[in-house]
């Protein structure tokens, strides 16, 4: 759990301070109807998150580098009409957007005509693969999940997470971020540093249908506090491009790309994407070690992926396939 949570007072203050000009404490209390104590406590929480609010006596408070808040209309309109397919909910703060759609909070997922999507400005308990925590701060990332129904067995979904990686790479390439690549099964890397991740969780709905909650996190401009809490090399789009990219625009285009790939995945399976996926794989033809969940370590050379998305390795014992495991480079 993120030790810091942000309450609704803090969000209201931040929204007021988004204009980047000074607001006195009395103006804040008057506009928001909160007590001085509430304002002071909320500002302390904001500060602990690494958000820099300048406090100048006589002038008040100013947020010098405010975030660009997620905006439903921009997301729906870009690039085409995403409202045809999606029902999008934007939350200020939630434990995890995946939890939200797995547990079906609000019965929000029940409208079968639309694909439910939930995005959050801040996750207090963002989850990564293999039980890891997914660390982000307020508005410094794109963190969202969508829920998709499949009339298939769980086994038919084995290549799904790889296909989601393709959608993310395609969209980043569209924004001229060309050197992004994938690490099997679905990590998105730039220069050997993690830029984005995908967490897919499935649940059986009926005997013949299953739903997948597809959670995506893309780093936009992580603060030093967040970066140092991650404990491994990470990067973000600000570091890569030198620009503050528009989260709403990228989100809109990504949703539309995800819709395309999911439709094609349903129709044709992973085979349809295999060649493209291999072309993005950072480890194709490389000597690697694969750490299996049972602590076994396999050494081999990567030789593509199978039609179900499992990894092919040429090992000393011959060619073998793996559907789980974590790749690391083999030391020479
Ligand atoms: C990974 O370990 O690489 C997967 C990271 C997935 C993070 C995203 S952020 C949105 C969604 N909600 C979560 O709690 N996790 C996923």
General description of the model:
By secondary structure, the protein is of the alpha+beta class. Helices cover 30% and strands 28% of the residues. It has a seven-stranded mixed sheet, sandwiched between helices. A five-stranded antiparallel sheet has the order 13-12-11-10-14, with no helix packed on it. Helix 6 crosses helix 9. The longest helix has 22 residues, at 247-268. Residues 96-98, 123, 126-129, 132, 134, 143-145, 187, 197-199, 215-217 line the site of biotin (BTN).
Give short descriptive properties of this protein:
five-stranded antiparallel sheet; seven-stranded mixed sheet; binds biotin; 332 residues; alpha+beta
Question: Which ligands, by name, code or SMILES, are bound?
Answer: biotin
- SS summary, helix count: 10
Radius of gyration: 21 Å
**Averaged pLDDT:** 92
For the secondary structure, the number of strands is 14
Strand and helix map with partners:
Elements: H1 8-17, H2 25-32, H3 36-48, E1 53-56, E2 60-63, H4 72-77, E3 86-94, H5 97-103, E4 115-123, E5 141-150, H6 160-174, E6 180-183, E7 187-190, E8 193-204, E9 210-219, H7 224-230, H8 237-241, H9 247-268, H10 274-280, E10 287-291, E11 297-305, E12 311-315, E13 318-322, E14 326-329
Parallel strand pairs: 3-4
Antiparallel strand pairs: 1-2, 4-5, 5-9, 6-7, 7-8, 8-9, 10-11, 10-14, 11-12, 12-13
Helix pairs in contact: 1-3, 6-9
Residues 96-98, 123, 126-129, 132, 134, 143-145, 187, 197-199, 215-217 line the site of biotin.
Short description:
The chain has 332 residues and is an alpha+beta fold. The protein contains ten helices and 14 strands. The chain is globular, with a radius of gyration of 21 Å.
